[in-house]
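Entry for the shared binder. Reason: the reviewer on the internal report wants the predicted structure included alongside the sequence.
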Amino acid sequence: MSNYITEKIKEKNLNLTKKLIKIGKSLSLENDIKKVFKIILDEVMEVTNADRGMIYITSTDQKTLQYERVKCISDQMEMDSETASKRWQSIALFDELDEPIMNSLATFVFHTGFEAHFDDVYNQDYFLIGQIVAMDERDKYRSKSMVAVPLVDHEDHVLGIIELTNSIDESGEIVPFSEEHIEILLSVSSQAAITLSNKLLINNLEKMIFDFTQAIAYAIDMKSDKSYQHVQKVALLTNILAKKINTIEDGVYSNYKFTQDELDEIAISGWLHDLGKIATSNNLLNKNTKLQSSCDRIKFIQTKFELLEQVIFNQLLQKKTASEKNILNSILERLPGYMKLIISINQGSEFVSEEVLDLLTEISEIKVIARGKEYRLIDEDELENLMIRHGTLTVKEYDEIKKHAELTYKILSNITFPAKFQNVPKIASSHHERLNGTGYPLGLKEDDIPLQSRILAIADVFDALMSKRSYKSSYDLNKSLKILASMANNNEIDKDLMDIVLDKKIFVTFASEYNVEDFQDINIEEIKGIYRK
């Protein structure tokens, strides 16, 4: 008989060990914290024959217990945190005087920090049962045998509570939770607390990465009033297009499906794609006119015009030959026209023709010498800036701004990203690369540019076209799409991605971010005809 009992005990311990190993493996293999909660509750309810189970999570301020997962077998009901929060309010842990509230088993266990179990929770005097009774009456349920254990981390913080109700025996009767049940629950709670603590730590670190990247992006956007919210919008548009690729069932990218980690990696890259601009001069980023440096030098030129005009008047009052007076009068007559021209082209909104360039050269050569001093209208640096064909940047200044892509890579490559985000430096820094090799910073060609960067490139160009700049007004949607189509035709951006933008009406979602509501003039076939000839 004693051998039989010994064998039964061994068998019981072996089964218990197997159950715990099974639960431990399940917890260690799952990365999704929501699924971790489901595994914990499913497993402990199965081994304890519990009819109902709940997992509460402590709020970040340690003031309430929030329903994370609820399951009831007899009611055939199972809820995640989102559904449960709509049905039940969070449970307060402290009153208005910050005194502990003891009106349920869960709050009792939270404040004591120990496991607690009752054969009939209605017949105990450790805590008030008002909340349990209220829930039972509402759900037409009778809570009887109950057990709860805290999930305590390595710093003795209660992360949450596992609460089980009504253990059911083989005949369907409610029975007390056995010592074995409690032993299993304590062991599982210990494993679960470690797993939960690790998962929360990882999630918090990842959240910190996202929060930090968005904070940096906001700071970069604030550097320039020319491109305010550019980074934010590009990150959003990139995310929209990347997620859409996962849903398409035809075309080149129909078999390409981004994992959630890859989508997160793309999102981070979108937020950090202009990180290098953190080192770009504010004067360059905010150069709203051709003559702007620390201020718009058009005022200095106007002053030089006025001074030269006064010098000429004074010269004409002196004894001059007829020829000299004719030259001075000729300059005087042309000054208003010259000034009007310079004011106009200083804005950078119009393309400067060869004729205007010649006229600017002529203006720069005008000089009047009076009392041994030379007076000119514009100097060499001012001439160089005014002769910018389009926009407000000189070639040297544009090259300086282009360095931001290379600097983005250098900065990001010095950060130790988690393995799943290791491609962020390349994705983020390649948004100015073009499939035909004409882009920067490395002049990469088609095979070397990842799909993620191609997506980012389209989002970046779309925002630049749809947004107002100092040298241009915002383009309408039709013009913006046609310019993108021309870039696709020149093999600068991905034709197949442009197909998705047009065929799947992504441009409608894009345009909504710019308050565009009328899409009547968008002829998709006409636009596609630009690059699908």
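Summary line for the report: The chain has three domains: 2-203, 224-284+396-531, 298-392.
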